[in-house]
Write a structure and sequence with these properties.
By secondary structure, this protein is of the alpha/beta class. The protein contains 14 helices and 17 strands. The strands form five sheets. Strands 4-10-9-8-7-5-6 form a seven-stranded mixed β-sheet, sandwiched between helices. A four-stranded antiparallel β-sheet has the order 13-14-17-16, covered by helices on one side. A hairpin with a 2-residue loop joins strand 1 and strand 2. The longest helix is centred in the first third of the chain and has 21 residues. About 45% of the residues are buried. The structure holds pyridoxal-5'-phosphate. Pyridoxal-5'-phosphate (PLP) binds next to helix 4. The site of pyridoxal-5'-phosphate (PLP) has 13 residues, from helix 4.
Length: about 400
Amino acid sequence: MDESILDIKNIRKDFPILTQTVYGKPLVYLDNAATTQKPLSVIRKIEEVYSTINANIHRGVHHLSQLATESHEEARKTVQHYIHAANSNEVIFTSGATESVNLVASSFCRSQCKPGDEIILTAMEHHANIIPWQIQRDITGIVLKVVPITEKGEIRLEDVEELISSKTKLISLAHVSNVLGTINPVAEIIQLGHNYNIPVMIDAAQSVQHIPIDVQALDCDFLVFSSHKMYGPTGVGILYGKENQLDKLPPYQGGGEMIAHVTFEKTTFNELPFKFEAGTPDYVGSTALAEAIRYIEKLGLENIRKQEDRLLHYATEKLLQIPGMQIIGTSGRKSSVISFLVGGIHPYDMGMLLDHLGIAVRTGHHCAQPLMDALGIEGTIRASFAFYNTEEEIDTLVAGIKRVAGMF
Ligand SMILES: Cc1ncc(COP(=O)(O)O)c(C=O)c1O
């Protein structure tokens, strides 16, 4: 196998948590699709903001408030450039991908849908891209249509097209499945939607840390993701929307900063992006997210992707040598997520016993119960890799699985 372009041994020193032991064993952290670990530069940035510039933003004329405001707005530009948005006012800070989807579902359905109108989702969506639409279905009477998946865990363009009708108002789907690892053909689906004048929203929670994203080249109408899955802090997320799409949406929440003028009779709203940022935003989190993006850019997203692809292929090959191994999701286009089952062993038992060997994997339905139903299973064990993982850690996982399997 080729040498990695990234110096992983040195890079791991940036992540203090990785040096821990769990039950006396070196931690093998393979739950990166749930959340990634944070480099020291991000951890220190949080301390730096609180130690040097902390003040509420936008509303203050004083020095610290101006510095904190600048920091938050600079962070917006950092995100803008990372996803290649045309304008920084198309970048809305939220509390996470979940809130971003809720915002769009609520504001879009309230303003643009009538009973019987249709939203298209896929069978592999995370609950975060299902439940907000169901809530709106119960309020506005919209209909949800679901694109099925193939045996390999892929979406076929013709199946999407089949569901499109004159009532389709929006298509919303994951770029990368958090269970199957499948990288969906989002550019083609966006193009397809646009052929029918249908806007498309991309859930990039599992892609933005692995795959370079250019929202202008993709031409998506909305795109959402979370900071904590891309080496940034928890509690911060992004909603990207094309300016003309965001302009059509009414505010999601009311409160400070999102207004132009308030009387008890009538309120007029602020312009983008502030219209969607009611209350004090997490300016510490946004600043730390910008630091995480700088960290990713320093390593190079292409280099990160190459390293993660190596890990995916190495792990797939090694795991398949284990008797009784069944990998769930066998698309040829995958990100570094592997779901699997071993013989008849319950995923929870496997996860618990691996934990005692210091190996952190996720087990269960991964917030994708409809997908589990479609696959006819209750859950899986999921190992998900970040660039800081190593082949040795994968060897430890494989040895751990064999050991656990031997107990049953
Ligand atoms: C594909 C996908 N979408 C959305 C989410 C929700 O992200 P968050 O919980 O950070 O809002 C997740 C989290 O696992 C995810 O994997």
